[in-house]
Structure prediction request, 457 residues.
Amino acid sequence: MADLQSLANVVGPENLTVDDDVRHEFGRDWTRYMQPAPLAVTFPRSTEHVRGIVRWARNEKVGIVPSGGRSGLSGGAMAIKGELVVSFSKMNKILELSRGDAMVRCEAGVITENLQKFALDHGFYYPVDFAARGSSAIGGNIATNAGGIKVLRYGLTRDWVAGLTVVTGTGEVLELGKGLIKNATGYDLRHLFIGSEGTLGLVTHATMRLTRPPLPQRVLFMAVNDTESIMKIFDAFRSSVAISAFETLNEDAMQGVSAKGLKRPLETVSRWYVLVEHDTADNDRALEVFQTVMNEGLALDGVVSESSAQAAALWRLREDITEALAHHTPYKNDVSVMVSRVPSFLADADAVLKREYPTYTIVWFGHIGDGNLHISILKPKELPMEQFYKACQKVDTMLFEVVQKHGGSISAEHGVGLTKKPFLSYTRSPEEIATMRALKQVFDPDGIMNPGKMFDP
Ligand SMILES: Cc1cc2nc3c(=O)[nH]c(=O)nc-3n(C[C@H](O)[C@H](O)[C@H](O)COP(=O)(O)OP(=O)(O)OC[C@H]3O[C@@H](n4cnc5c(N)ncnc54)[C@H](O)[C@@H]3O)c2cc1C
Prediction:
């Protein structure tokens, strides 16, 4: 039995709990196929606390599950085997803005939306953005290299991390990157920790880059019949308009958000819908492109936002999908291919899914402008969860063969965690996985950091 009293001495008894409700709440993320079963939950207040926690865990041979906003979709923050959950929810302060550097230093538990608001309040912009912005935390975003809806213009979380403080699985504190734009002094270890899903160490602080706020944005929403047309529309806009997002959803996704009370913006019902966001300064050109794609029959119908409220309403059709479908406990996939391969990948994947799931509803949506598609298979009400999960995992192998054939990734932005662990080899070669294992051995020789996630030792 682990000695929790000595851990309480490290973090203070008020920052450690074995309360059942808290363990249940903090031992899980958005994944719903597994039951949380953590040993305890601790709420460090400082890097020193985190270092003490890691040393304690090494001594006691207890696994650690780092926990941010718990909005993860791959089970990365699930504690299912008596691990200690280390929640950063009390390390949630924005510490320092450096205007000259256009950078902000913050604790790992800062909620993404709070950083976005802070940046705007100070005349800057933090561009990584997605529907879980109100609950996800910067530490979790870094650990998953979160992407989202503005990747086309601004890239991924990785592109905004200028410095990190991490506590490794050996209890060492590393200052990585230090906010330097240029630093040609060997391996950039910062990038190893970005996207490592807590398997190498814990991020306690981050220095994030900021940029200037964008010009006002406008949104176009179109009904489209097929993916070839979607990609032609993408090409037409991208080549002549400054677009910041190009998103898609299928009719099943539209039905999901409509059932939750969102109004359809178009009378036309079609297989696909596309949302394009662009700088208002490019209005005239965007309208010309819109007219052209309508004339050419690529878009069947469309609407242009006339105000920011209308733009927000159109965005909700895309952004509310995950929440609208949550009550179906969907089985999720988050795959990517190169943009040029989207139509052929989609045709192949759709054929497999339709063949294997003749009676299930298959919802497609995602960031098609960067080659990333989310696939949600809705659980039929009467089917027991375990049976549904097993059936879906079987189909995953077929889907991932298609992903592999098209040179894609089995997890574009949600991470590997527990749910995609069995399939890592569809995207990473045996040599790459062996190298990742060797790296883990360096930073976490006792295997205490998020054990069982991403790959087995
Ligand atoms: C409605 C909805 C929409 C979403 N849309 C997107 C999207 O568009 N793009 C996208 O990329 N993701 C999306 N996600 C997934 C999710 O929000 C992201 O993966 C997010 O980055 C997770 O952050 P979090 O703080 O909630 O992390 P958590 O879920 O708490 O943890 C995620 C992983 O990071 C590790 N971790 C957390 N904090 C730390 C830390 N301080 N140090 C080390 N490891 C840590 C955890 O152990 C776990 O492995 C969406 C989720 C939802 C629910």
Observations:
- The chain has four domains: 4-89, 94-209, 217-322, 329-431.
